Amino acid sequence: MKYDFDTPIDRRGTGSLKWDVAEGELPMWVADMDFQTAPEIREAISRRAEHGVFGYSVVPEAWYDAYREWWGSRHAFPLEKDWLIFCTGVVPAISSIVRKLTTPAEKVLLQTPVYNIFFNSVLNNGRQVLQSPLRYEKGNYSIDFADLEEKLADPQTSLMILCNPHNPVGKIWDRDTLARIGELCEKHHVTVLSDEIHCDLTDPGCSYTPFASVSEACRTNSITCIAPTKAFNLAGLQTAAVVVPDAFLRHKVWRGLNTDEVAEPNAFAVEAAVAAFTRGGGWLDQLREYLFENKRLVKEFVAQNLPELSLVPSQATYLLWLDCSRICEDSAALAEHIRKTTGLYLSEGAQYGLGGERFLRLNIACPRARLEEGLKRLADGVRK
Questions:
Q1: How far apart (Å, rounded) are the C-alpha atoms in residues 50 and 44?
Q2: What angle (nearest 5°) sits at the alpha carbon of residue 236, between those of residues 315 and 254?
Q3: What are phi and psi of 360, to 5 degrees?
Q4: What total number of domains does the chain contain?
Q5: pLDDT (tens digit per residue) in 228-258
Q6: Of 221, 248, 279, which residue is a domain's last?
Q7: Cis peptide before 367 (omega within 30 of 0)
Q8: pLDDT tens digit sequence for 59-110
Q9: 114: nearest Cα among 352, 357, 334
Q10: Domain limits at 205?
Q11: Would 11 be classed as within a structural domain?
């Protein structure tokens, strides 16, 4: 079946966070897609809606089976049913876990630049953010393990939030890197909370390695947040899962999620997730091909029309990281200028922590014609 990713969808007037902008502006910032989700998922939601009764829901066996089959076949990681806990979203899970596993004023380590909402989950709960900046050399990112271990060794550091694949730099961490992180965290008694929400949005031919699959140390000392929401554009349905192999750690997480009332599904959350993982594979594979071509288009456009910028190579996500260091010290001012003069709305890099100050983040999950319009506006804004 051939799926349509080219037809523009008008999202104005739908209560969309992304598209709640002025007329004439083009939003390419927040991480949701301008594509309709897979028709197989829409059909499942429609069937549920036609029933007409939307009472309290339970998590059925089909939900567990769908996650287990998908991770076993797609990611070569057999999950056990007992490891899985339903949650309304990855961010609610992260915030709940921060509250449950750490105490006020303790430190939570982040590898920056990284997803900006991690900072909210830490700071809003009275904990300290401890930043371990990634090493950026010749356009590529890697981990500064000397800095990482020094900060993990701080007695006040009790939790590390790992982003795998990494948002915003588009990096898939390899098995050796993940194993070393696991060894260091076990050595220094730091629990790993791995956000793997972008794991299904890898480039064609690229695969990701689940952190908990790497070693015994990684498995027993980790909590993993997964969901169909990024890959299938379902964020508004509030559906996710938390994977905790260790029984003792799992009980603490389960208690935290239930205390915070984020462990019960709405009427559509289960149906959508099951449909995504059991019937959405073909749609997702075509989406990944489409996004890869969008990335190729951006790469060629930047090389030909914006030599002042550098595009960081991406292996995953639909979020591209633009190095603007040759033309600005502060990408916030650049983003504001571009929006004011062209209407193009991008994310400025400083909000992602240390190392992001001279970067812009560009969301390319949109029809190609819309992406081409965004690139024209980007070039116009930089020239102005």
A1: 10
A2: 85
A3: -125, 145
A4: 2
A5: 999 999 999 999 999 999 999 999 999 999 9
A6: 279
A7: no
A8: 999 999 999 999 999 999 999 999 999 999 999 999 999 999 999 999 999 9
A9: 352
A10: 43-279
A11: no
